[in-house]
């Protein structure tokens, strides 16, 4: 295992897809120059967060995976010797689209994709209009520097997703994210929402004894202020770093993967799991007969 340098790219986006991709590449280079070995980009970083409206024209933003964006990022990954985690709008076939993250290894090789499993449908976040739920299951990727798990935004709220990905061998859980506040909300509500978002993810670190890296966007788009606040939590949920709520940032953190063994040994949650008793979890509700 050993140590790995992880880069977080928190940025704002525009309506120009190529500009966003070019900007992300500049920031990947910045992270690599700071020593990053694995760089995670935010959710749907090549565009504005278009799910604020149900608009058929937005399907034109989608692309194949592998495709143009992964080709460009693959060349950068190979040049810099870094792993890149890239969240993209996937066009799988005519009329079938996914919210998908591709993983490119440090030699530029395309390792595969994870398709977002949990799809929200809330005011300003109309993702069910655009995205078919993921059908690849939960995934881990054995990169040059670490075995990583990737989940996406709304997946953050589900301990089952984190647990399964950790049980598959993930040493780090990455969450590319696009989440923010309605600009009409009061500050107390904003604070409560951000704290809940961070707390649930830090709890995944505790329960599974793995690092959690969450990368969010910043900027105001269509009445939503994306709250940034990207962070890294250690395998016992301690906050190692948290970015600002409104500034673009490129952060590189050193993660000691051997810490998982320490925490899992001293707090043996995985040892004491009663897997024989968990069948009811597959029910929607446990109703009385």
User: What's the number of helices?
Assistant: 5
Taking the alpha carbons of the first and last residues, their distance comes to 49 Å
Strands of the widest sheet, in order across it, are 5-4-3-2-1-15
| Domain tally | 1
Low-confidence segments: none
H/E series, N to C?
A: EHEHEEEEEHEEHEEEEEEH
Task: Explain what the structure shows.
This protein is an alpha/beta fold. It has one domain: Nitrilase/N-carbamoyl-D-aminoacid amidohydrolase. The protein is built from 5 helices and 15 strands. It has helices at residues 17-33, 68-80, 159-167, 187-208, 259-266, and strands spanning 3-10, 38-41, 83-93, 96-104, 110-115, 140-142, 147-150, 172-176, 180-182, 211-215, 218-221, 224-227, 231-233, 239-242, 249-256. The strands form 3 sheets. Strands 5-4-3-2-1-15 form a 6-stranded mixed β-sheet. It has a 6-stranded mixed β-sheet with strand order 6-7-8-10-13-14, with helices on one face. α1 packs parallel to α2 and α3 packs parallel to α4 (187-208).
Keywords:
289 residues; alpha/beta; Nitrilase/N-carbamoyl-D-aminoacid amidohydrolase; six-stranded mixed sheet; 5 helices; 15 strands; 24% helix; globular
Summary?
The chain is α/β, with parallel strands linked by helices.
Topology:
Elements: E1 3-10, H1 17-33, E2 38-41, H2 68-80, E3 83-93, E4 96-104, E5 110-115, E6 140-142, E7 147-150, H3 159-167, E8 172-176, E9 180-182, H4 187-208, E10 211-215, E11 218-221, E12 224-227, E13 231-233, E14 239-242, E15 249-256, H5 259-266
Helix pairs in contact: 1-2, 3-4
